[in-house]
Design brief:
about 300 residues, single chain, two-stranded antiparallel ribbon, Umud Fragment, subunit A, 434 Repressor (Amino-terminal Domain), alpha+beta, eight-stranded antiparallel beta sheet, about 30% helix
């Protein structure tokens, strides 16, 4: 399952991970004030930087001229790429080059690939010229509610992330703090400085927006971090429900998250009593696979109102 990585258990890194996750989700979860306002303001500023389609075409033309390539040279080069992949969609004929450069024609993904190869351009950078930021995929995905619990397969495409660069030196983080009022300066931080978080080596999942199985411990829409090294179901060692391990599992119909117990070759997936859901029984490990144990979460706390309106 390539959608996951190993978790990082360092407390400081876990805290930074939670902050980054909260920042990513803040644009959708918070109102137009405080932290949410700063997030949206930065998002609007980023979108304002996108160039028009004509500007993108003019950029391509200037790069072609800087490389001293004629339009016919571009056509011939693209035909070689099309021949390599046995796909005529990669070919950028002379009239298409002219329309892309002068009339704002948006090239297909195949033709854009050919132009990037010919001009020695980074494909992701050129996509941004046309207003497509791959780094926005995760945040845009949060605009769509998916009812089923599912893993996340986005790769780390963004090169920078909007983060608070400095806080009020008088802030006492030992106490509950309203961070929105403590941020003195916002800025974009290259993700290379977040390498110590080892985000790639962690596993992540989202609890479905209609998955109430572990409510109220895990609200629908909760972002969870999974420790895939914990693949043995514990039978004891906790004093209350907050200490009891929660597991993330995969079965034939999808994914599930909850408490588990094993009786012989049967795995019983147990919901939180307040969820009003029923336990589920699977033949283990034939019908269900243990992905790992939930090691961290980030969730909103206003789902109870939505749940009460359902009944």
């Amino acid at each position: 399952m390539p959608l996951f990585g190993k978790p990082n258990k360092t407390p400081l890194r876990a805290l930074l991970f939670a902050i980054v996750t909260a920042i990513i989700r803040a644009g959708r979860l918070l109102p137009w004030r405080g932290f949410g306002f700063h997030f949206r303001l930065a998002l609007v500023g980023a979108l304002a930087k996108h160039h028009s389609m004509e500007d993108a075409g003019q950029k391509l033309r200037r790069i072609r001229e800087r490389l001293n390539l004629r339009v016919r040279d571009v056509e011939q080069a693209s035909l070689k790429i099309a021949d390599k992949y046995k796909n005529d969609e990669f070919a950028v004929l002379i009239n298409r080059v002219s329309e892309i450069e002068n009339r704002g024609l948006v090239p297909t993904v195949f033709k854009l690939y050919s132009l990037c190869a010919i001009y020695r351009l980074d494909f992701q950078d050129v996509l941004e010229w046309y207003g497509i930021s791959l780094g926005s995929l995760p945040s845009d995905a949060l605009l769509v509610e998916v009812p089923e619990t599912h893993p996340i397969s986005f790769r780390g495409n963004a090169s920078e992330l909007l983060l608070p660069l400095s806080l009020d030196p008088g802030a006492d983080l030992r106490r509950t703090t309203y961070l929105s009022r403590m941020v003195q300066r916002w800025g974009r931080l290259p993700l290379m400085f977040l390498e110590t978080l080892n985000l790639k080596e962690q596993r992540y999942a989202l609890i479905g927006t209609e998955d109430w199985f572990m409510y109220p411990l895990l609200q629908p829409g909760t972002f969870v971090c999974i420790d895939d090294t914990q693949r043995k179901i514990a039978t004891a060692g906790w004093n209350n429900e907050f200490e009891r391990p929660i597991y993330f599992l995969e079965h034939r119909q999808g994914y599930a998250c909850g408490w588990c117990s094993v009786n012989g070759n049967q795995l019983i997936l147990q919901p939180h009593p307040a969820s009003l859901c029923s336990p589920q029984t699977y033949v283990y490990p034939d019908e269900i696979d243990l992905v790992g144990q939930v090691s961290g979460i980030a969730m909103r706390l206003d789902q109870g109102r939505r749940r009460r309106t359902r009944f």
